[in-house]
Each structure stands twice: as C-alpha cells, then as structure tokens.
C-alpha cells in the first residue's frame, strides 16, 4: 500500500513523555528521523531508549505527546504503523525448535505476505545475512551472532520500510558486532530502508548519519558525529592516581577542569599546554595517563559529566604507561 503521507518523515517523535511510577523514563522528547537515514540513539542504561522503541513499535502507550511511523500515529493507527516496521528486540524472540526457514516463513505468514513473495524475500534475506546454508537447521543449533543475523533477516520479510534495532550487538564479540553493522549498512543502501538503532557502544555510532544522545529520558544533543565532535568535543586527560591521597589532591587542585570521574580514573578538560603543566606537578603521583582527543566519548562526557565506557585504550589515544617507580614512562 502506498504511504498516503509520503512527505512525512520516517519517524516523528513530538514531546513524548512516559512515566513508570516515580520514574520519568521519557521527558517530553522530540526528534525526527529522515527517510533512508541511519540514526543512532545513544545513551547509558536507563536513558529511556527501550521505552522509546517500545512506544514506536506500539507495545507501550506514551502518557502524552505524539509518535508517528511513516506518517501514522502509533496510538491511533497502530496497525498501519506496525506494518511499516521491522523490529529486532533486545531479547531474542526466535522459536528455537523451528528451523531457520520455518521461523522466517512463520513471520511472513503472520504478516500476510503471499507465498511466492515470501519465498523470494526469505531467499534474498538469508543470502544477505549469509545464512542460506543454515536454512534447514533448527535455530537452537545457531550461535548467538547467527541468531542476531536471523532476527535482522526476519524483520525484513514483510513490507518493512523502517527498521528498529534495540542494542543489536549486545553480548556479541567485536568481530560479530562489526559484521552485524556491515549488514545494517548494506540493508540501508540496498533496500533503501530507514534504520533507527539504539546502542551504548559509542564506537558503533561513528558511521551513523546522525546520533541522538539521550540521558535520563531527555535528548541532550542530536547531530552528525562530526558536528557533535566539533560542537561539544574536547581534549580530555584521563588520569589514574597512584593512590587515594594523590587522587584527592588532583581533584582539589583541578576542580575547575574536572570533566568527570570513571571508576578510579579522573578526567580533566585539557589542552596541549596543560598536559606538560600537569606532568610537571603530578607526574610522580600517577600510575597512568592518557590524552583523549575529541571523540564521541568526550562529547558524551561534556554533555553528561559521565563516561560511557571505563576502558580508554584505543587507537585514538596517546597513552603514557608509567613504570613501577614514579615518573618513569614510555610513550
Ligand atoms: N516496565 C517498567 N516498569 C518500571 N520502570 C521501568 C519499566 N521500563 C523501564 N523502566 C524504567 O525507565 C527508565 C528507562 O528505562 P529504559 O529501559 O527505557 O532505558 P534504556 O536506555 O533502554 O536502558 P537499557 O539499555 O538498560 O535497556 C529506567 O529507569 C527503567 O528502570
């Protein structure tokens, strides 16, 4: 069926609020996702991402505000909205006793996809997620990465134009995560679909068109990764003090530069001159130090005062590892 509101954005969220008892899970949030966009919702646990997805896929009703899928209101026109969606939930929802093919076929049947078209789509999707050879195997024999791939395939057996993926890579190893993202990008370009994906892995959103950063049920920022880094990114010095006493002294001395604390790490807003000045004063009282260049991680830190991940070791950083005796270091 042609979309009667074809000029409408793929997803529109307007002042949506949802409360669970005393918890304000969503606090009047608004944004739009354009057609064929790869759009990420980034936020820590409890930010409200799943609640928002549950509203978009018509499982949960908002207390107030409007949410639209392809121009259809999720509260007043849930069936029309739902038909346009392909959904991959956080919790696996495949039938383990059925084969790969049976799972896909059942889904197509439920959505009323005619038999011939169903066969064709299933074949296409299995090829895309590289599971053709597994078609007749029971789902219980698949690895967790393969099950995720199958769920992605299943979400696209009907006429879905908009795909919602809730933490699609959670619990998967780095290699499998990369593969899942490769499928998502391919799908977007080959099937011209719109993708909204939630994640709390910051490195995963670098390749998305736009990123919406959420915390405590609010949108803190929404833009392309480049624009976010330009507007909010900053150089941060990540320090591991030698002991509690040193930590307290650093915190007191640089309170005006404090960007956040993550476990035993102290994060200070930095600039090139500051690193040398800090080392001259505290070089002997720290165990490790890393200079983090502006990244989505430092954007998140600037916006929330919290780090999204505890480990700060990756290629973007120049790390100085300090030896057992204070002051010795290797670059
Ligand atoms: N059914 C519910 N009943 C009560 N509180 C809920 C319910 N669902 C979510 N919440 C609360 O609403 C807030 C937002 O939760 P939500 O699951 O949407 O966040 P999230 O960003 O998706 O986090 P996660 O990645 O852990 O799923 C949290 O404080 C959560 O405890």
Which strand order spans the largest sheet, edge to edge or round the barrel? 6-7-8-3-9-10
Shape: elongated
Query: What structural category do the secondary elements indicate?
Result: alpha+beta
Q: Give the mean pLDDT.
A: 87
CATH architecture of the largest domain: 3-Layer(aba) Sandwich
Number of strands: 16
Bound molecules: adenosine-5'-triphosphate
How many separate domains make up the residues?
A: 2
Q: Taking Cα atoms only, what radius of gyration do you get, to the nearest Å? A: 23 Å
| Number of continuous helical runs | 10
The low-confidence runs, each spanning 5 or more residues with pLDDT under 50, are 310-331
CATH topology of the largest domain: Rossmann fold
Fraction in helix = 25-40%
Strand content: 25-35%
What summary fits the major beta sheet? 6 strands, mixed
Termini gap: 61 Å
User: In sequence order, what are the helices and strands, one letter per element?
Assistant: EEEHEEHEHHHEHEEEHEHEEHEHEE
CATH level 4 superfamily of the largest domain: P-loop containing nucleotide triphosphate hydrolases
What's the CATH class of the largest domain, please?
Answer: Alpha Beta
């Amino acid at each position: 069926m042609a979309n009667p509101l074809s000029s409408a954005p793929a997803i529109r969220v307007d002042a949506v609020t949802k409360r669970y008892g005393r918890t304000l899970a969503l606090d009047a949030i608004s944004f739009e996702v354009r057609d064929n966009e790869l759009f990420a919702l980034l936020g820590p646990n409890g930010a409200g991402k799943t609640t928002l997805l549950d509203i978009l896929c018509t499982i949960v009703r908002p207390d107030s505000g409007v949410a639209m899928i392809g121009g259809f209101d999720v509260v007043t026109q849930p069936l029309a909205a739902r038909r346009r969606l392909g959904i991959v939930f956080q919790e696996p929802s495949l039938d383990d006793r059925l084969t790969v093919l049976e799972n896909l076929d059942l889904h197509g049947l439920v959505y009323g996809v005619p038999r011939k078209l169903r066969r064709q789509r299933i074949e296409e999707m299995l090829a895309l997620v590289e599971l053709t050879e597994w078609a007749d195997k029971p789902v219980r024999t698949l690895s967790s990465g393969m099950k995720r791939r199958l769920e992605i395939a299943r979400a696209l057996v009907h006429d879905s134009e908009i795909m919602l993926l809730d933490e699609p890579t959670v619990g998967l190893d780095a290699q499998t995560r990369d593969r899942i993202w490769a499928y998502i990008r391919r799908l977007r370009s080959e099937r011209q679909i719109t993708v909204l994906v939630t994640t709390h892995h910051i490195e995963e959103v670098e390749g998305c068109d736009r990123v919406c950063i959420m915390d405590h049920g609010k949108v803190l920022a929404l833009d392309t990764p480049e624009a976010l880094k330009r507007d909010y990114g900053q150089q941060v010095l990540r320090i591991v003090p030698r002991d509690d006493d040193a930590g307290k002294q650093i915190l007191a001395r640089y309170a005006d530069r404090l960007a956040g604390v993550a476990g035993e790490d102290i994060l200070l807003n930095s600039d090139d001159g500051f690193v040398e000045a800090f080392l001259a004063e505290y070089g002997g009282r720290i165990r490790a130090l890393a200079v983090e260049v502006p990244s989505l991680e430092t954007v998140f830190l600037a916006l929330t005062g919290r780090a999204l991940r505890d480990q700060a070791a990756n290629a973007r950083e120049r790390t100085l590892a300090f030896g057992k005796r204070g002051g010795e270091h290797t670059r």
